[in-house]
Amino acid sequence: MQINRHYLDLKDSYLFATIAKKVNAYQSANPQAKLIRLGIGDVTLPLCQEVIQALHGAVDEMAVKETFRGYAPDEQGYPFLKQAIREYYAGHGVKLEENEILVSDGAKSDLGNILDIFSEDNTVLIPDPVYPVYVDTNVMAGRKVLFMDATEENGFLPLPDRSVKADLIYICSPNNPTGAVYTREQLKEWVGYANEQGAIILYDAAYECFIQDEKLPRSIFEIEGARTCAIEFCSFSKMAGFTGTRCGYTTIPNELVRDGQSIQKLWLRRQTTKFNGVAYIVQKAALAVFTAEGQRQIKENLGYYMENARTIARAMEEMGIWFTGGEHSPYIWLKCPNGMKSWDFFDLLLEQANVVGTPGAGFGKNGEGFFRLTAFGDKQSTVEAVERMKKLLK
């Protein structure tokens, strides 16, 4: 018996597990400290009432023989939810077929599991800094990983280098952790590069709902040519607060073909073998997100978080600290003051201001010297955290 030794190439601990360990140790030693957590990107507002009502209604259905649901007729989502997602995309000028939408338990799962259908010999191109799951899942499989530099100089939005050969390309916009957003023209460059290379873009659009400017693309399928080179991953986690409810969807166009094989059909085959679908109750809750009242209520919640983002952004401006994000993203990516290292700044904020953030070095080498704050706290705590930082860093 042998283990998958590629796991030994991973860092000993997942970034957020390391943060939790450090925070717990500090809290144990300082039980009176009132910590404010602006680190992990978990939401804090409850599910909106439209969703709660749908959950209750679906639970009641499960208690009656005539409306009880067991296995879904389709592991990839009930037609009622797929149709709602189609209409949501149509609102942004994107036309999708029902079979191109595959419902899942979240974008994170799909971003890792999609690799099952691709050869381990593929070369993967990933931005640095980056959400750790992109790197770790490929390291687990033993793939060759190339990094593109996202830096202050390019606004943390790298563009393709046509001298680099890649098979799979990860793009996240709005970006986690930097909050930067690609323009339509910039995404056109990536789509053109991918089609030239015969590569596939794995496009993480989990934060598209935070985009405020209609000129900025919310889906890569708004870009001409993307249907032959892209897969898009979306989530209800940040849009509707489903971090603990778990629902998302992956969109694969029927035109996406490699080695003479439909990528959509390969993913469908993988999912029908390894996944039994999202619970009916959760899918009914997700459907409520797309009702007129559901959209109104979740936009109120999103507005609450974006006001927190503006509060943090204004404080950075007042202190003269360089940052990206906060305008079309719940993340503020700031440059550590006085040339501090990321983990040193983490310790400073934790110990001197009792504020928890995320050190940029945890997202890659280009994250060193930077720091991520999130807007997912409650409003009062966010204001207090900002005042503590201003007092500490003045």
How would you characterize this protein structure?
- Helix 6 links the parallel strand 5 and strand 6.
- 39% of the residues lie in helices and 15% in strands.
- The longest helix has 28 residues, at 292-319.
- Helix 2 (49-62) packs antiparallel against helix 9, helix 4 runs parallel beside helix 5 and helix 10 (292-319) runs parallel beside helix 12 (379-393).
- By secondary structure, it is an alpha/beta fold.
Question: Would you summarize the structure shown here?
Answer:
By secondary structure, this protein is an alpha/beta fold.
Give the low-pLDDT segments. Answer: none
* Morphology: globular
Query: What is the share of helical residues?
Result: 25-40%
Element-by-element helix/strand order = HEHHEHEHEEHEEHEEEHHHEEHEEEH
Strands, total number:
15
How widely separated are the two ends? 58 Å
Q: Please state roughly what percent of the residues sit in beta strands, choosing from under 5%, 5-15%, 15-25%, 25-35%, 35-45% or over 45%.
A: 5-15%
Largest sheet: 7 strands, mixed
Please give the radius of gyration in angstroms.
21 Å
Tally of helical segments = 12
Q: Within the largest sheet, what's the order of strands?
A: 2-8-7-6-5-3-4
Compute the average pLDDT.
Answer: 96
SS content category: alpha/beta
Features:
single chain, 394 residues, alpha/beta, seven-stranded mixed beta sheet, four-stranded antiparallel beta sheet, 12 helices, 15 strands, 15% strand, globular
Secondary structure: elements and pairs:
Elements: H1 15-29, E1 36-37, H2 49-62, H3 79-90, E2 101-104, H4 107-113, E3 123-128, H5 132-141, E4 144-149, E5 168-172, H6 184-197, E6 200-204, E7 230-235, H7 237-240, E8 248-251, E9 257-258, E10 261-262, H8 263-274, H9 280-289, H10 292-319, E11 323-325, E12 331-335, H11 342-353, E13 355-356, E14 358-359, E15 370-374, H12 379-393
Parallel strand pairs: 1-13, 3-4, 3-5, 5-6, 6-7
Antiparallel strand pairs: 2-8, 7-8, 9-10, 11-12, 12-15, 14-15
Helix pairs in contact: 2-9, 3-9, 4-5, 10-12
